[in-house]
# Entry
Amino acid sequence: MKYDAIVVGAGHAGVEAALALARLGNQTLIVTLSKNSVSHMACNPNVGGTGKGHLVREVDALGGQMGLNADSSLLQIKMLNKNKGAAVQSLRGQTDKEVYHENMLRTLLSEKNLTLLEGECEDILVEDGKVAGAVINGENIFSEVVVLCTGVYLSSRTITGEEIHEAGPYGFENAKKLSAALVAKGLPLRRFKTGTPARVYANSIDYSVMEREDGDFDINCFSFLTKGKLLEQVPCYLTYTNETTHKIIRDNIDRAPLYNGTIHGVGPRYCPSIEDKIMRFADKERHQIFIEPEVKDGELMYVQGMSSSMPKDVQEKMYRSVKGLENVRFARYAYAIEYDCIDPLALTPALEVKMIKNLFSAGQFNGSSGYEEAAAQGIMAGINAARRLKNLPPVVLGRDEAYIGVLIDDLVTKGTNEPYRMMTARAEYRLSLRQDNADKRLTPLGREIGLVSDERWQSFLERNGKKEAIAEAFKIKVPLKSVEALFAEKGETASAGMSIEELLKRSFISAKDILPFLPEDLRDEDLAEECAVDVKYGGYLVKEAAHREEMRKMEEKKIPEGINYLSMPNLRIEARQKLDKIRPLTLGQASRISGVSPADIAVLITYLVKGNR
# Structure
């Protein structure tokens, strides 16, 4: 049996990789241990978050599926950091996890060129250093490219106190043989850990003593194709841990697998378990706990903020010490999960394994955490695997082009010693990499690649055309009387002859304020807000563009593939070793390697100049 491509795993990375390959015309096989685990939300039932919302928008702009699928299952949507600048605002949506899974499974099954197979990938077939296929359920299945998207399933085990099960998340079967096969081929694997809170019965919670958290009804959804706002939403609730909770945890810390040596994997710094929070932040009197629905009108709730691997009896005590959870009943206890993943320094910026040609990888297998980071890598791995099949150069997004570029560059250039999480602070060009302009940045590229449909392209042209018209209309001069009236409301003094653009440069003027001055057919508050951001950030965007241009010159300076760093004179030993291990493609990438100093880059530049002479 032969396919053009095989994708191993059908989580959030695998589905994007497989859909990209299939939609680009390749006969693709996607293999999963169980079709019930397709796009399963084993951890939290939501999409987006700080920095993560940017990734969802970018995947959508390229022609991916996550944004559309999230919108089809939304229970609530919020704009995080709404009171801060637009650069750090991110969408976060609460989803119906069952609907999300069902809709994605339906999408896979209806996709032309895509075959879904239940089974276990046991090995990768390699001939002369190049992928030849995979061993699935004991059978050799041949293909020209393979994409590994194994998530947290490789030799995984779940841990709740003294209870340890050789299993994947949520009780699904794990992958037992692939880890050893990959190690035998020389791939550098390591052990990471993540966790999830308990699921509790909705009717055992006292919501009356909690703070109700409603969504935002006036914002757009994730996908640029989704029309209208989410007008029917389900509330979430906020409560807090207390000193009693903390004492229960401290008194039982010797039974915590994270502290007694049972867990060996490295956990995520930015999403720690509740016992880790209590021990690391001993000065904090309380921690936020969000009660969120798993499905619409469902019987189970998710206790966000209380992931744990504590024994069940300790979990019962500490959960029931929280206000509103005094009588809570458990449907599923919290657990930690350990799993194997690759050292991402073994990957190229195209997400190809350096030592095995045509073997790509994405998602948590690459050392990241989160559904959004997985989907972002998945679509790029799928795109580059498809381009390899057509002998086309890979698509590598720069740090100045997308959060996806930041994510992948961080992983393959800097590496990670813990599950990597995307945050807005990681993006040095975040003023121009906003979630509102993701389509302007990436949809033309998606169209060029072949993933953007005619419908999406037409929608983009209409939206972009209207934004350009609004930006042009900002030159309109506003009558003095109107300006005076507006400024009087704000307690400010107006001057004559001001344009809409000049008004927007005043910090106290919003896009909503200037809507009445626009031509009637351009009074779109959402698009006007996006255009207004470019005006308000104008000076900063110019500075950012200048810095970006300087860095682009570094990115354009290619490094010869076979360069011998180990014998390079005047280069420090650490720099030689790091450069030889990572094999950067450009001077820009080399400059971001940990342990490579500006002085080392100067030596490298001199060496390259002499070589060219």
Summary: Residues 248 and 317 are 7 Å apart (CA to CA). The chain has four domains: 2-191+341-449, 199-338, 471-540, 557-612.
